[in-house]
């Protein structure tokens, strides 16, 4: 059994009371910016303002919480150090051996679960309120496919960490594709196209399409939507919408 035991909910980086106080203080300090951003998101995505603030806050807090899915085993090189004494001097000689390593596959709450649920909310409650929902769904599907392929091309497995993607790639691609798609045939909401296509495309392109590589990374826990992917997913939604908003004002 690994260091996380049989826990179903895993706090990847435990939050001390001091850290929580710092996080809340930072949240209050940035409140004017967050209010402005929240208003932009609320109007762009056509959702209540309180829901936007809940998404912002719980995505940050949830980034430290992982839900265990399964545990896999793989053969990985493990470094051992052998001590050798030569003329009274101790030398530590590294040796590489192969051993069985257990890896927990988990889902990150802030980087996967919350963006997924919010995207489903937009698809069910926001898209149908427009005049041509079928056209909107098709555009979101195209954006999702494009973002998935591009993100997958840039996704890089990093030993001991997980799958990493340059954080500027997903929002830039999402905003560009959404800006190109929204006026075709019937004008649709480009912000929803960017958010849903970008967040889901990043998750699928980075983590799900690299599912088989996760046990080979040598990490004790591989979190879907966590580690290097959290920035990509979280910032995709925020940055893509802000880029489009700046383009259209």
Write a structural description:
The chain has 249 residues and is of the alpha+beta class. It has one domain (9-72, 107-248). 54% of the residues lie in helices and 22% in strands. It contains eight helices and six strands, in the order βαααββααββααβα. The chain has helices at residues 17-29, 31-45, 49-62, 109-126, 133-154, 169-181, 190-207, 228-248; strands spanning 9-11, 65-86, 89-108, 156-158, 162-164, 221-224. The strands form two sheets. Strands 1-2-3-6 form a four-stranded mixed beta sheet. It has a two-stranded antiparallel ribbon with strand order 4-5. Helix 3 runs antiparallel to helix 4 and helix 6 (169-181) packs parallel to helix 8.
**Helix segment count?**
8
SSE order, one letter for each helix or strand: EHHHEEHHEEHHEH
Quote the beta fraction.
Answer: 15-25%
* Low-pLDDT stretches: none
Number of domains: 1
The major sheet is characterized as: 4 strands, mixed
DSSP strand count: 6
Measured on Cα atoms, how large is the radius of gyration?
Answer: 21 Å
What structural category characterises the helix and strand content?
Answer: alpha+beta
Mean pLDDT: 81
Q: Indicate the percent of residues in helices.
A: 40-55%
Based on CA inertia axes, which overall geometry fits? elongated
Distance linking N and C termini: 55 Å
Give, in spatial order, the strands making up the sheet with the most strands. Answer: 1-2-3-6
